Every structure is written in C-alpha cells, then in structure tokens.
## 1
Amino acid sequence: MRTQVGIIGAGPAGLLLSHLLHLEGIESVVLEDRSRSYVENRIRAGVLEQVTVDLLNDAGLGGRMRREGLVHDGIEIAFSGVRHRIDFRELTGGKAVTVYGQHEVVKDMIAARLAAGGQILFETRATAFAGIDTTRPRIAFEHESGTGAVECDFVAACDGFHGVGRPAMAHRLQVFERRYPFGWLGILAESPPPSDELIYASHESGFALYSMRTPEMARLYLQCDPDDDIANWPDARIWAELHMRLDDGERALLQEGSVLQKGITPMRSFVVEPMQEGRLFLAGDAAHIVPPTGAKGMNLAVGDVFVLARAIADHVRTGRSERLHAYSQTCLRRIWKAQRFSWWMTSMLHLFPGATPFERRVQLAELDYVTGSPAASKALAENYVGLPFES
Ligand code: APR
Ligand code: PHB
C-alpha cells in the first residue's frame, strides 16, 4: 500500500492531521489498533481552547460542536469555603472555552474523513518502521487477516503514550518527567449541573473538580492516592467525598445520580525532545503528557498537528524543508508553556502529602492572589483559553 503520509493512531491527533492534509490535497492512511466503536466511545478530556474551536471551525469540523458544545465564559475556583469566578471573556478580550467530549470530536473527525473517502484502517496495529532516514519510510502492520506495509513519504506517530513511534526513536530522545504523588478518581454521572461552569476546588481533604459533558451528565473528579484501587471506592463513598469538597458548606450543591463510569488515573508531566527523527514525526500524547488540571491534553495534540500539516504541505508544494526541520522546536515552545501552566494549576490546587502548614498557607495565599488580582486572574485566563498556535 502506498500513500503520501502514513499516520498511526485515530485519536484527535491522527484524525485531525489526516483531515488537514486532505484540505491541502495530500493523501494519507490512518492505522488504528482499536475498533471504530472503541475509539468513538472512549471517555477522555472535554475542554476545547478557543484556538482549538477556531481551528475546528475553519477546517469545517465544527458543525455539531457549535450545536451541542457548551460554551463556558469562565471557571470557578473554590477554597476556604468560598467560590471565586474567573471571567475569561472579560479578561481575554472575548475568548471562551467549549466543553465538548473528546470522543465527540473523534466521531466528527472519523465521519468527515470517511465522507471524503479517507482511509482509516481500524483494528490494524503498526508494528515496526523501516527507512525512517530515507525518503521512502515504511510502516509494517498486522491485522486479523495477516500483515502488510504502508510505504509513504512521511510517518506521523500519533499513537498516544503507549504507541510504537516514540520507542522507535528512543535512543536519541531526552526525557523530561515529573510524577505527582496523587491521582484523579473520575466519574461520569447522571447528575444535572449545579453550576453552568467548571468548579476547581482546593479543599483541606484534597482537590475536586466539577465538570460536565451535557446538561444532564456530570464529570466529577477527586484527588486520591495514585495507587488506590477503585474497588475501595463504592459510589456512596465517592459522593460523600464530592459533597464534602464541592458543596457550599451545609448546602448540597451536587445532586447524586447513577454513576456510569469510574476510574483512577495517575498524574504526570512528560515531554520528549526532539519530536522528530528523519521522516518520523511524533505528535500529541506520543510526545507529551500533561496532568489534566489545566485541561490541555487534547489541545496540545491539535497544536502539534496544525504545525505538522503546514510543514508537510509546504514541503509538498515548494520542496522546501525549513518548516519540517523546525517542527520540534516550533511545537516545543508552545508545549512547554502548556506544561508550565498544567504543572502550576496542579501544584496550586492539590494537597501534597507531607506538605507543611507553611506550604499550605502559601498555597492559599496564591489562590487568594490569583482570584483577587486582575493581573493574576488575567494570566490564568489567557493560558486557560489557549495561547496562540506557533507559526
Ligand atoms: N498501531 C495503531 N494504533 C495505535 C498503536 C499502534 N501500534 N498504538 C496506539 N495506537 C492508537 C491508540 O489505540 C489510540 O486510538 O493510537 C491512538 C492514540 O490516540 P490518543 O491516545 O487519543 O492520543 P492523541 O491523538 O495524541 O490525543 C491526545 O488523548 O489521552 C488523551 O488527554 C489526552 O486529550 C489528549 C488526547
Ligand atoms: C473534563 O471535563 O473531563 C475536564 C475538565 C477540566 C479539566 C480536566 C478534565 O481540567
């Protein structure tokens, strides 16, 4: 099989890359290990930055997002029993974020690719690469009925944190990593919203987050031990902890409803440099992970493939390689700013095991400053709605 760009992974990174290349008249084939229904139903992040929303609209992918996505003009930050609002529109000159599940974005992208005759090979696992340092790289794959190969001009490994792209260039990568001494227990629950906006709470029992997927469906998170077993968390214990951390004192904010999904995720910050070797490019979670506190994961994946699609298109049109050579450097400037923001939000809002009373007082002072000072609120808002894509 021959194509111009071989893409591994049908997550937001791989699918959007394939679509953006198609808009430039460039052919690609997407290889995805899992089934279509698996990737379309995998519950992940849900906050789209303004720049992501603008890009999806410009690329013709925004129809359902505009109808069904929930536009949020701000967030609330709760600490010491009081909620404080950060008004994004006012602080950023009119920008906002949109709450729209990552799996909905994935569904829209798959539908658009298939409608345009795009090739996505589901249940097809990339296994090895050859000729990465040549102009004719190959991806070997296997699926139920046997093995095969994609010959292409470029390979984009958009295959997530556990993919095959990053290990293939491991020998030349520098790894930057921070693990946090806590995880997030997340649930999806039939619970109508007590607030129109997300609530990030720094409570003496630990962090909690109120988020949503639809006007009837809440997405709720609790800071927990990263090694805790979900079996230790029956629904009643989860609700009790959520009430304690998110309710307004004695007034119940949350309405309990059936819990449809639950799981524990560890938190880490992770970046590899560079994100390219020869004609193999890493994009999205394959190259970096952020703790979810800043809601940046999917947005970073989008930023990477925006840069990569332009670089490949420039090469195909003009034969010039400057943008391709600059790919890592261009992406990493924005990635590191999002890493900083995610690390900062995480550090400010969570209880660190073993923190001294002095450290907790400093944390509370920072929360007071961020919510009380227009300059500090503006810095949070500017990062939360998304810094511009690098060009
Ligand atoms: N062959 C084919 N497909 C593979 C392989 C392989 N060897 N390895 C992994 N994949 C697929 C996975 O099944 C997955 O569907 O690659 C896809 C990677 O998609 P994502 O994990 O969604 O990664 P990405 O597109 O970078 O999106 C980043 O996902 O984890 C969230 O919070 C993160 O929102 C961020 C987003
Ligand atoms: C989510 O809705 O899943 C969500 C929202 C905000 C975050 C992280 C996750 O910071």
Note: The pocket of adenosine-5-diphosphoribose (ligand 1) is lined by residues 8-14, 31-34, 39, 44-45, 102, 125-126, 158-160, 163-164, 284-285, 297-298, 301 (CB under 6 Å).
## 2
Amino acid sequence: MSEKFYITTPIYYVNARPHIGHAYTTIACDAIARRKRMLGIDTFFLTGTDEHGQKIDRSAAAAGKSPQQFTDEVSGEFRALWDRMGISYDKFIRTTSAEHKRGVQELFRTLQRNGFIYKSKYTGQYCVFDELYVDVIGPGAPCPECGRPTEMVSEENYFFKLSAFEDKLLKLYQQPGFIRPETRRNEVASFVRGGLRDLSISRSSFKWGIPVPDDPGHVVYVWLDALSNYITALGYGSPDKKDQGRFKKYWPADVHMIGKEIVRFHCVYWPAFLMAAELPLPRSVVVHGWILFEESKMSKSRGNIVRAETIGEVMGWDALRYFLLREIVFGQDGSFSFDALVQRFNADLANDLGNLSSRTLSMIARYFKGEVPYPSATVARTPGDEAIAKHAEETIKTFGELFDDDQFSRALETAWSLVGAVNKYIVENEPWALGEKQDEDSRSRLATILYTCAEALRIVAALTHPVLPESTARVWEQLGLGDIKALKLPELKWGQLPLGTKLGKVEGVFPRADKSAIERMQKMEEQRAQAPATKTEPSTAEGGGATQPIPAPAAEPPKITIDDFTKVELRVAQVKHAEKVKGADKLLRLEVDLGTEVRQIVAGIALAYEPEKLIGRKIVIVANLQPRKLRGLESNGMLLAASVGDGQPVLAGFLEDVPIGARLK
Ligand code: ME8
C-alpha cells in the first residue's frame, strides 16, 4: 500500500436534496478514510457537488431561480449535512468553482492538443435525466437506462475519440482490483467489447456549463466536467506550485467509490479521458449497490426518500452509519426500513455493545473506585480469560482484513462476535457476586475479569471507531484514555490498557429506542413529503450546522363531489404555435387547436420547454377556465402539468394517440 491514500465520493447532483442514498456513499468513504488515517496513512478524502448541465439548468428554472442561486442553495445543503454528520472530508469541491472551471478547460485543451478531439454534427437522442447520449431512435423514445422519454439533439459538437480506447480499456479491466467487486467487471467489459463510438463532449443549445476554450458558444458535456473534479480538486490545471504539489502527491486516486448506475462513466469514459491526457489512471473503482426503500431505489424522482436528518435527530448519526454498513452487504442492494433500523440499533448497540460498556465501566467505578484494576499476579488466569485475549487478537486481524476488502458488514460481525463472547464471559464469571466479597482472592479474580472486559471493550472501540466515531470517542473517554484520535491502529494489541487509569464519567452511550422512535421518524418524513418544498438557507463558506426546518403538517385537501369534478372541462389540445413572451422569462404564448377552435394560452413553462419542441404536441388543457390577462396577453385556458422536484413542470400527455378535442373524464 502506498503511503498516501486518496478516496472520492461521486459529486452529487444538486437537482435533489440529500437523502440516505447519498449518505450511504459518503458514510462508506468516511469510514474508509477514518481507518486509513488511524493506520497512519496520509489520507485525502474528497466529496462535493455536480452543478452544471441541462438537468440542473431546468431544475433551477422550474424553481424560479437562477442556476447559480439554485446550485448555491442545494450545494450548501449537502455540505451542511455532511458537517452535521461529522463527515471527515478534506475538501468539498463545487463544479461551479473557478479552480474547477480552469482545470476542466486545461484538460479539454490537453485532449485537443493530443489529437483526441474533433468537431462534427451530432444528431440523436439525449436523456436529460441521465445526461447521456443514447442509441435509440425517434423523438420521445424511452431511455434504455431509466425509461424516461429522450429528447432529440441536433447540434454541431466537439467529439472525443473514445473509439480509439477499446483495446486499452479491455486491458485495464484485466488489472486485478481495478473494478471492485469483480462481478462488475464483466458488465463493463462486455459493454466495451460491444464497440465504442466517439463521444460528443460539448453542447451548444444551452449555456449552464463550462465554456469550451476558445469557443464559448459550446459548454463542456457535463460528465467530462463532472469526472474532472477528481483531479481539479487536487489542483490540476493550477499555475500555483502548492496546488501542483498536491496533485502530484495524491493523484492517482486509490478509490473512486460510486453507485452501480454510474459504472460506465467511471470505468469507460474517465479512464479513456485520462489515457488521452496521458495522466495516471485511478487504482480502483469501488462499486456499491442501492439503498431500496419501499422496494425500489431510493430517489427523488420516485419520491421514496428518507432524509439522514430524520435518523440523526431521533437515533443519532452513529445509528445511521452503523445500520448502513452493518445491515447492507456492500456491493449489493439492501433495504432500508425504520423497523429494521431500530431493531438493529437495539440489538447490537443498545444491548450488546451498550451493555458491555455500561456493565464493565460501572463495575470498575463501583468496585475499584473508578480505576482500571490490575489483573491478578497471584490468582491463576482461567482458560476463559485467555480465550478472550486470543479472540481479541484474532478480531484485530480479521476485522482489518475484511474492512480493507470493503466487507464492512462482515468486519462488524467479527467485532460483535467478540462483544458477544465478552458478554457471555461476564455472565459466566458473575463479577457482581465476587464484588460482594472482600477476601483477597475474590478481589484479585474480580480485577482480572474486569480488566479483561475493559481491555476487550477498548479494542472493540478502537476497531469500530471509523463506523461509530461519536460513541466510541465517548467510550474511549470513559475508559480514561483521552482523545481517541491519538490512537495508532497498527500498534493496537491486547494488554495495552494502562493499569490504574482513572475512568472518565461513566454514562450510557446507546439509550434503547422504543416504538415511539419509529413513529417520530415516520411522522417527520410524512410531514416533509406533504409540505411544499421549503426554501433552504445557503450555508456559510465553511458549511456548518444549518438544519433544515421540519415543515408543519399540511392540511388535508377537502374532498369534492363528482359534480364538482364534472364542472371542470378537461380537453386534449394540440400545440400549433409557441413563442416566448417578451420580457417574461417564464412565459410561453401558445396557440392550441381544440378541434373546434384555436385558442391562445399563456403558460409558465418557458424555462422547462423550448417553444419549437412543443409544436405538434398533444397536451391537456382546462378549457372552461375564465380568461385572464398575463403580461397584457389574454390566456384562454390552462394547460396541465405535473409539478416535480422543486416545481419543475412536466406536461401531461398520452401514450396512445388521442383525437384533438377529446374530453377527459
Ligand atoms: O450520479 N442508494 O450524482 P447523483 C445508494 N453527479 N446510493 C445512492 C442512492 C441510493 N438509493 N441514490 C443515490 C451522480 N446514491 C453524478 C455523479 S461523479 C463524477 C458524478 C448515490 O447525485 C450513488 O452512489 O445522482 C450515486 O452514485 C451517488 O449517490 C451520486 O448520485
């Protein structure tokens, strides 16, 4: 292993508020980074936000904000959450920062200089949701990745010669450990074997991106922009010597941690860009599965999200960290439920570790005036004492091997096997009975037992600190050991607990959660789901502390009768003409055909739809709405659209063909 360690999370799209799916990747990286630091390795942990591209441009527009204002707010939320959770990142990169822009332009120039970029016309389908060029035919054809309708793009673009890298990439995948777990390798290799086409790496029909050097009519394709964060954050492209030094020191990355849906970008596009730029390749791409909630991937677009704040506020951050790393087999999908969270917390933390800690420490406080007792030199040790010491030594070894192989769940399982063994040892040895006796042999025996328990507790706390940073730091202090950060993991072995150490104040670390905890969490999430999107406070430059307010419950909408409903005349109309309304960013003037007449409607969809793309589209309108004037133009009806995310309109439509003028009932 190298003496430095560079680990990255993906940078998160700011079109969604952070949820525990995002927290999962971040927590896993945080745990790894913490362990590396404890091992004495010079570690750099990067996270940040992905803020350019058409998807973000549209989300901002739908929220009625400028892209900069919108991205400032949501990026601030991510950062504030990581700060609240105590995520130990070394740098939080934003793709809208000057250093990143400079680095991306430098990479673009390098690719150009090395002859891997040419200009050509791109005509084809594009999935805005995945920010991906897709091989499907026809307007609205579903994206093969996510199933959403794709959009036709016909632009003069810059292309990257991806096709030149097929063989080199296939060779790269042969390198053991480049893609982890192994199972993901075949998937990527077969994609590459299927043939690679050159990749369009610029867009010219919108502006929210990094301008292509010397051709500002184009912005850099958002994935080239985003992937470059891994090097720009270190200082790639900077004229500053210090930045250059940091880049030289930490690049290549040791681990790019990603979710399984973005493997292609990290294992095909990214190494190809780096090869073309003659830069070293990352040592590994580590792929995890999805957190499922209510049976499907937790995501904003499905609306099935759970916020980390809810769990942190009710159960504590360590509960969330422990649950995600213990319950989910890393690499596979795993389900989240409040019941499972509370069950796991009570069984492993409140009962097993909590009991070991409180029983051991309170007996030392009670029987030895709060000082770590000296194991007896006169009364013989039992095989039971020896077995615990041996078990602890083995745990140090196996925990490390499993953890360093990304098998967090199994690593924690081994630590809990030690916890279980010590709890059993306590029951078998009944220290409380010995505590009642005053004879020297009983005191000596008691000293050995409690020393054994305290030493095992110390080892469990040391090993699990990367997963349970807050609570193990408290256990450490209660053991009288001061700041756990001073611990050097490579030196950890049995028998180092200093004798006679004065314990800190002994108190419970994991209070048991009851049913009301589940109800509270569910209620908090229901309230959030019902409430309209709350305005979020941008965080300070240092992130820090801002919590999202818990919105008040929304009132139940009143029920209406069928007669009320039939008063609303909903009809199919076809857009004949569409144009922007001068001086109003959000408005489009539409002429729509109802079969019997052509009407003028003024609609607030200009930020989400380009007028030309609406021509010929069949939409649904409320035909009997009283006319009203908008910007001096009469609007005679209202079109129907779903309001998604932060209010982005998505027009209602039909999968089958429907005649113009048909009524909806
Ligand atoms: O993909 N379960 O950003 P993103 C597990 N900006 N992990 C989940 C998850 C879930 N339900 N939902 C999200 C992007 N994630 C790009 C990355 S990198 C150069 C650019 C995790 O915000 C998953 O790891 O949509 C995913 O890879 C990451 O969040 C970022 O998702």
Note: The two ends are 67 Å apart (CA to CA).
